[in-house]
Amino acid sequence: MPYRLEGDDPRLALLFLAMPRLPLARQTGQQWFDYLPSSMLVSGLRLVLYQFCSSFYPRLASARYVGQWQSNGTLIGTISIPKVAHKIHTSTSFNRDNQLVRVSVGDLSLVRQQ
Predict the structure, then answer these.
(1) pLDDT digits (tens, 9 = 90+) for 5-31
(2) Which of 20, 22, 61, 94 has an alpha carbon 20 to 30 Å from 68's alpha carbon atom?
């Protein structure tokens, strides 16, 4: 998976948010943590405030991602933005051949057509 995202493609951004990194081993219940840039989740004045305040409180520069294999073909995740109570839930589904089938972030989804 990518380590960063450049450009304005909303589909790639959705993929990056749903699964910023994947562990090599796939074990049901396995959990891992990662960080996403706040600029992928906030915009406008709020982004400017986050960027300014992160100079004094560096944790504001990134959102925390917690991923977990719910089953062999389903990955779930939660994105927490600093100082925001609302969490963003993600899910990713793979078929038996480990091909990506569905990616969901909040109420947005990408579905692979057969």
Answers:
(1) 667 778 888 888 888 888 878 889 999
(2) 61
Bridge partners of 37, per DSSP, are 62
For residue 79, give both structure tokens: 């994105």
What tens digit of pLDDT does each residue of 28-66 get?
999 999 998 888 888 899 889 988 998 998 888 889 999
CA–CA distances in Å: residue 9 to residues 18, 30, 35, 66, 104: 15, 30, 20, 24, 16
d(CA 107, CA 104): 7
- Amino acid, single-letter form, for residue 49: L
CA distance 9 to 5: 9
